[in-house]
Design a protein that fits this description.
2 domains; alpha+beta; about 290 residues; 10 helices; single chain; Dna Ligase, domain 1; globular; 6-stranded antiparallel sheet; 4-stranded antiparallel sheet; D-amino Acid Aminotransferase, Chain A, domain 1
Length: about 290
């Protein structure tokens, strides 16, 4: 059936709620529904989602808006790593820590690059931040940005970072099956965060949400330096699943909010967005002065 005929036969759609969290699902399919079919889509626009899938570009955008990030170097085949360990080597556009290595010594660099290049032609070499790891969510509600209670991943000396096995149960064929039942790095929600640190994290998360032109909700991973107690944003995830095991769902539960009420509220907001505009961001920081 020709595309034009298929579009003409579409039923009336209130809102599209995507559940495809791969790169094509976050970008091409979102763009198809919203930009081609003109349907309101829950969540950030495809351009913002595409940006968040590129770790190096995401860092550049949020850091320009005052969000602290760790020192890093973009590396391609044939490049020389100029940074000094310890650092993280990770594929620039991969997710769930696939191809990620924590490098402690120089003699580990070549193997870390080999593993990373199996997943991407571009790698991000990023300073390792010793200390705590937190995940926060920004939600648009009632015309304001709010930050839900954080999840802390309890890293230890033996498990200083989260690996792919802390995020996914990998089958023998290499495909993910589900979240692991007993990850080595256990999540705790809500995290016990001092008010001054929480204020810095909330400010950074909101700035990132605005800088990336997010809509409805967004997630951010932070490391908090063990010595300075300063937070550094690692990555952004511009999607939200309202399943019972979803990150936002866990945060809402401890905050005493209804998952169904928030989901419906955000979906209604998205449903009202029937006219495409160049920028979907409603929130701007006031100009200094």
């Amino acid at each position: 059936m020709p595309l034009q005929e298929a579009i003409a036969r579409l039923p009336e759609v209130d809102v599209v709620v995507p559940h495809m969290f791969c790169v094509p699902g976050m970008t091409s399919f979102r763009g198809f529904f919203e930009d081609v079919l003109g349907l309101p889509v829950f969540g950030s626009p495809s351009g913002s989602s595409a940006l968040s899938c590129n770790k190096a570009q995401t860092r550049s955008v949020v850091s320009a808006s005052g969000v602290p990030v760790a020192k890093a170097q973009v590396v391609r085949q044939g490049d020389t790593v100029t940074m000094q360990p310890p650092f993280i080597v990770k594929p620039n556009t991969e997710d769930n820590s696939l191809g990620l290595t924590l490098v402690w010594k120089e003699d580990q660099i070549d193997e870390a690059l080999r593993v990373g290049f199996e997943h991407d032609e571009t790698l991000l070499v990023e300073d390792y931040i010793p200390g705590r790891e937190l995940r926060v969510a920004v939600v648009e509600r009632g015309g304001k940005l709010s930050v839900l209670p954080a999840i802390e991943y309890l890293v230890t000396k033996d498990n200083p970072i989260r690996t792919v096995h802390d995020k996914l149960d990998i089958q023998e064929d290499g495909l993910p099956r589900k979240q692991p039942d007993k990850p080595a790095v256990k999540p705790v929600c809500p995290a016990d965060v001092a008010p001054d640190l929480w204020g810095k994290i909330c400010d950074a998360a909101k700035r990132a949400h605005i800088a990336l032109d997010c809509r409805e909700c967004s997630l951010y991973d932070f490391r908090v330096h063990a010595e300075t107690n300063e937070p550094y944003m690692l990555e952004a995830a511009l999607y939200g699943s309202f399943s019972k095991i979803g990150m936002i769902s866990r945060m809402l539960k401890v905050d005493g909010h209804s998952l169904s009420e928030l989901a419906l509220d955000l979906w209604r907001t998205a449903a009202l967005r029937r006219t495409r505009v160049a920028s979907g961001a409603k929130f701007k920081y006031p100009k200094a002065g």
